[in-house]
């Protein structure tokens, strides 16, 4: 016997089932249309990210092409929407050099960011004896000899938008922050330990959702 709406045989039961199914379908359609209209009218703006600083505890390239690094970075996020909140369900931060990942991924705890609110995170990102591609090792060695190293701090994750009581599905978030670090001149930073130097960066990051 078919279980489709309205195919339950004679009597009043079939009509009742059809009306119930019709009401459910109509309700779902109304909810979807409402979410779409709210989304179009409010036009959510993606969050702004800024890489504020990086504290370098270790950055050593050894043979054969192994990199050991340890950073603590400060990254700030601002929700620029006045009527839309943001759920950061998952966010992982790591460093790359010339598109090669050079540290482990560090997880940021899930959080909610209200309207026009700011969040600041200071995770550690590190890697021990990470193998570096030979051509990248040569380029990195040259940069170290010149005293300036250019890294990209990345944050990848999933976000949801909250509009009133409505919460959207999950969207991919990709953040890219340029970190230009002057390793040759430690006076360019602030000494925060015996071998640690904090470099003020304040670089605006690219954000894709």
From TrEMBL:
Topology in membrane: Single-pass membrane protein
Keyword Ribonucleoprotein: no
Keyword Membrane tagged: yes
Transmembrane segments: 20-42
One cellular-component annotation, GO: plasma membrane
Boundaries of every Late embryogenesis abundant protein LEA-2 subgroup domain copy: 74-177
GO biological process terms on file: defense response to other organism
UniProt entry keywords in alphabetical sequence: Membrane, Transmembrane, Transmembrane helix
Subcellular location: Membrane
Primary site of residence: membrane
Full protein name: Late embryogenesis abundant protein LEA_2 subgroup
Species the sequence originates in: Arabidopsis suecica
Upper classification of the organism: Eukaryota, Viridiplantae, Streptophyta, Embryophyta, Tracheophyta
């Amino acid at each position: 016997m078919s279980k489709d709406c309205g195919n339950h045989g004679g009597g009043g039961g079939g009509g009742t089932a059809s009306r119930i199914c019709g009401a459910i379908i109509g309700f779902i359609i109304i909810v979807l249309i409402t979410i779409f209209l709210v989304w179009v009218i409010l036009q959510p703006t993606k969050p702004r990210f800024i890489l504020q600083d990086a504290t370098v505890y270790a950055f050593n390239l050894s043979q054969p092409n192994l990199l050991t690094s340890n950073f603590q970075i400060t990254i700030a996020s601002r929700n620029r929407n006045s009527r839309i909140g943001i759920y950061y369900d998952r966010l992982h931060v790591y460093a790359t050099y010339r598109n090669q990942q050079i540290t482990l991924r560090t997880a940021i705890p899930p959080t909610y960011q209200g309207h026009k609110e700011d969040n600041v995170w200071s995770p550690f990102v590190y890697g021990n004896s990470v193998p570096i591609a030979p051509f990248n090792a040569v380029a990195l060695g040259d940069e170290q000899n010149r005293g300036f190293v250019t890294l990209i701090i990345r944050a990848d994750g999933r976000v949801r938008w909250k509009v009133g009581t409505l919460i959207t599905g999950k969207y991919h978030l990709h953040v890219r922050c340029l970190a230009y670090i002057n390793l040759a001149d430690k006076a360019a930073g602030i000494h925060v330990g015996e071998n640690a130097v904090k470099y003020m960066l304040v670089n605006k990051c690219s954000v894709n959702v």
